[in-house]
Amino acid sequence: MAKMEMLFSFLPGGVVMDIQNYYGNLLKLTSRHPLGCQVVKNLHTALGRFLGMSAKAAHLDEGRDAVDLSTQTMKKFFGPIMTVEKEGDGELVFSFLECPYALSDEKDVELCHAVMNFEEELVRALGGKLTILERIPEGASRCRFQVTNT
User: Fold this and answer.
1) Arithmetic mean of pLDDT over the chain
2) What is the chain's Cα-based Rg?
3) Of the candidates 28, 48, 50, 115, which lies 20 to 30 Å from 122 by C-alpha distance?
4) Does the reported pTM lie above 0.85?
5) For residues 30 and 40, is the Cβ–Cβ distance under 8 A?
6) What CA–CA distance (Å, rounded) separates 43 from 128?
7) In sequence order, what are the residues at sequence separation of 6 or more whose Cβ sits closer than 8 angstroms to the Cβ of residue 106?
8) Cβ-based neighbours of 65, under 8 Å, separated by 6 or more
């Protein structure tokens, strides 16, 4: 049983709730509004900054760099679905075979850019830089990212 399914296996009748697709669909519905993508972008920017600053404050006295903090934070959020390709020497490269937000085709590109503000701002708040190397909605087979120290 997948980790996400195990989290919700207690629901009556064996109902399994797929939060990833639920949130992705909620984002898609929001983006239909003329200001929807801007609202999503602003929300994800603020949330990413807040969580990044909170994570950094929690580890201020440890002297850890942005890549180390980003690695730990990203693994907490996306660990079960994240593949780490490179970790060390001031760099983290990771990917997802499926979009964590269930965005999968070219009509989702604008929404993808808006949603990714969460990760970009989280890493920036930790003192690093997130570069998006590949995106599924732009035709790639996976979403792929690089985090470096600034």
Assistant:
1) 81
2) 16
3) 28
4) no
5) yes
6) 20
7) 137, 138, 139
8) 90, 127, 128, 149
Helix or strand run (H / E) with residue 133: strand 128-134
CA distance 74 to 48: 11
Residues pairing with 83 in the sheet: 95
**φ/ψ of residue 100, rounded to 5:** -60, -20
Measured distance CA(60)–CA(67) in Å, rounded: 14
Question: Domain-by-domain residue ranges, the chain?
Answer: 3-149
Instruction: Return the CATH number of the domain spanning residue range 3-149.
Output: 3.30.1380
Q: Please give the single-letter amino acid code of residue 123.
A: V
Q: Give strand ranges (E) for 30-101.
A: 83-88, 91-96
Q: Rounded distance, CA 133 to CA 70, Å?
A: 17
